[in-house]
Amino acid sequence: MLSRRKLKKEKVKHRLKIIFIVLLFLSLLIVTAEYLYLNFSFGRAVFISPLAKINQSKVASLESVLDKEKIAFLSVSQNLDGSFTVELKEGGVIILSAKKDLNSQLSSLQLILSRLTIEGKKLNKLDFRYDNPVVSF
User: Fold this and answer.
1) Beta strand pairing status for 125-127 and 93-96?
2) pLDDT at residue 52 above 80?
3) pTM for this prediction
4) Cβ–Cβ under 8 Å, residues 69 and 59
5) Residues 77 and 112 in one domain
6) Average pLDDT over residues 100-115
7) Could you tell me how far CA 127 lies from the centroid of its own chain?
Protein backbone atom coordinates (compact mmCIF):
# COMPACT_ATOMS: atom_id res chain seq x y z
CA MET A 1 0.00 0.00 0.00
CA LEU A 2 1.05 3.53 -0.68
CA SER A 3 1.61 5.90 2.17
CA ARG A 4 -0.44 9.07 2.42
CA ARG A 5 2.52 11.18 1.38
CA LYS A 6 3.18 9.13 -1.80
CA LEU A 7 -0.52 9.10 -2.57
CA LYS A 8 -0.64 12.87 -2.29
CA LYS A 9 2.37 13.22 -4.64
CA GLU A 10 0.72 10.93 -7.18
CA LYS A 11 -2.45 13.04 -7.09
CA VAL A 12 -0.46 16.24 -7.63
CA LYS A 13 1.41 14.68 -10.59
CA HIS A 14 -1.88 13.51 -12.08
CA ARG A 15 -3.43 16.97 -11.70
CA LEU A 16 -0.37 18.59 -13.31
CA LYS A 17 -0.66 16.22 -16.27
CA ILE A 18 -4.32 17.11 -16.69
CA ILE A 19 -3.53 20.84 -16.50
CA PHE A 20 -0.77 20.41 -19.10
CA ILE A 21 -3.10 18.55 -21.48
CA VAL A 22 -5.82 21.18 -21.07
CA LEU A 23 -3.34 24.01 -21.74
CA LEU A 24 -2.04 22.21 -24.83
CA PHE A 25 -5.58 21.73 -26.12
CA LEU A 26 -6.45 25.38 -25.48
CA SER A 27 -3.32 26.60 -27.28
CA LEU A 28 -4.16 24.45 -30.32
CA LEU A 29 -7.69 25.79 -30.25
CA ILE A 30 -6.44 29.40 -30.13
CA VAL A 31 -4.01 28.87 -33.01
CA THR A 32 -6.75 27.30 -35.12
CA ALA A 33 -9.14 30.14 -34.32
CA GLU A 34 -6.51 32.75 -35.28
CA TYR A 35 -5.83 30.94 -38.56
CA LEU A 36 -9.54 30.86 -39.41
CA TYR A 37 -9.93 34.51 -38.44
CA LEU A 38 -7.09 35.50 -40.74
CA ASN A 39 -8.51 33.42 -43.59
CA PHE A 40 -11.95 34.99 -43.37
CA SER A 41 -10.75 38.52 -42.62
CA PHE A 42 -7.98 38.93 -45.17
CA GLY A 43 -8.89 36.42 -47.83
CA ARG A 44 -7.36 33.06 -48.39
CA ALA A 45 -4.05 32.72 -46.59
CA VAL A 46 -1.58 30.95 -48.83
CA PHE A 47 1.53 29.29 -47.53
CA ILE A 48 4.01 28.95 -50.38
CA SER A 49 6.94 26.62 -50.00
CA PRO A 50 10.37 27.78 -51.14
CA LEU A 51 10.23 25.23 -53.98
CA ALA A 52 7.02 26.77 -55.29
CA LYS A 53 8.67 30.18 -55.25
CA ILE A 54 11.55 28.83 -57.31
CA ASN A 55 9.12 27.32 -59.83
CA GLN A 56 7.21 30.60 -60.05
CA SER A 57 10.42 32.51 -60.72
CA LYS A 58 11.33 30.05 -63.51
CA VAL A 59 7.93 30.57 -65.11
CA ALA A 60 8.25 34.35 -64.77
CA SER A 61 11.73 34.33 -66.32
CA LEU A 62 10.48 32.18 -69.21
CA GLU A 63 7.60 34.60 -69.74
CA SER A 64 10.01 37.53 -69.90
CA VAL A 65 12.25 35.70 -72.39
CA LEU A 66 9.21 34.89 -74.56
CA ASP A 67 8.19 38.56 -74.46
CA LYS A 68 11.72 39.62 -75.38
CA GLU A 69 11.78 37.17 -78.30
CA LYS A 70 8.36 38.50 -79.40
CA ILE A 71 6.63 35.13 -79.17
CA ALA A 72 2.91 35.75 -78.49
CA PHE A 73 1.63 33.44 -75.76
CA LEU A 74 -1.43 33.10 -73.55
CA SER A 75 -0.01 31.22 -70.59
CA VAL A 76 3.08 29.47 -69.30
CA SER A 77 3.00 26.68 -66.72
CA GLN A 78 5.49 24.22 -65.31
CA ASN A 79 4.70 20.51 -65.46
CA LEU A 80 5.49 17.89 -62.82
CA ASP A 81 8.50 16.62 -64.77
CA GLY A 82 10.02 20.12 -64.81
CA SER A 83 9.14 20.89 -68.42
CA PHE A 84 7.23 24.03 -69.40
CA THR A 85 3.96 24.23 -71.33
CA VAL A 86 3.38 27.38 -73.37
CA GLU A 87 0.00 28.11 -74.94
CA LEU A 88 0.38 30.30 -78.02
CA LYS A 89 -2.06 33.08 -78.93
CA GLU A 90 -2.48 31.75 -82.47
CA GLY A 91 -3.37 28.35 -81.02
CA GLY A 92 -1.11 25.44 -80.34
CA VAL A 93 0.91 24.21 -77.41
CA ILE A 94 4.68 24.23 -76.99
CA ILE A 95 6.41 21.93 -74.51
CA LEU A 96 9.93 23.04 -73.57
CA SER A 97 12.37 20.76 -71.79
CA ALA A 98 13.92 21.94 -68.54
CA LYS A 99 16.90 19.64 -69.14
CA LYS A 100 18.01 21.37 -72.35
CA ASP A 101 19.28 24.87 -73.06
CA LEU A 102 16.26 27.17 -73.12
CA ASN A 103 17.78 29.68 -75.55
CA SER A 104 18.47 27.02 -78.20
CA GLN A 105 14.93 25.68 -77.81
CA LEU A 106 13.49 29.17 -78.24
CA SER A 107 15.60 29.88 -81.33
CA SER A 108 14.41 26.57 -82.82
CA LEU A 109 10.85 27.55 -81.88
CA GLN A 110 11.16 30.84 -83.74
CA LEU A 111 12.57 29.11 -86.80
CA ILE A 112 9.82 26.46 -86.82
CA LEU A 113 7.05 29.03 -86.28
CA SER A 114 8.34 31.24 -89.11
CA ARG A 115 8.64 28.25 -91.45
CA LEU A 116 5.10 27.09 -90.59
CA THR A 117 3.77 30.60 -91.16
CA ILE A 118 5.42 30.73 -94.59
CA GLU A 119 4.00 27.30 -95.48
CA GLY A 120 0.55 28.29 -94.12
CA LYS A 121 0.31 25.36 -91.71
CA LYS A 122 -1.36 25.59 -88.29
CA LEU A 123 0.57 24.16 -85.36
CA ASN A 124 -1.23 21.94 -82.88
CA LYS A 125 1.61 20.79 -80.62
CA LEU A 126 5.39 21.17 -80.61
CA ASP A 127 7.41 19.10 -78.14
CA PHE A 128 11.10 19.84 -77.42
CA ARG A 129 11.59 17.15 -74.75
CA TYR A 130 13.05 14.64 -77.19
CA ASP A 131 16.26 14.65 -79.24
CA ASN A 132 14.47 16.24 -82.20
CA PRO A 133 11.40 18.47 -81.90
CA VAL A 134 8.12 16.63 -82.46
CA VAL A 135 5.55 18.64 -84.43
CA SER A 136 1.82 17.84 -84.54
CA PHE A 137 -0.58 19.54 -86.93
Assistant:
1) parallel
2) no
3) 0.58
4) no
5) yes
6) 89
7) 22
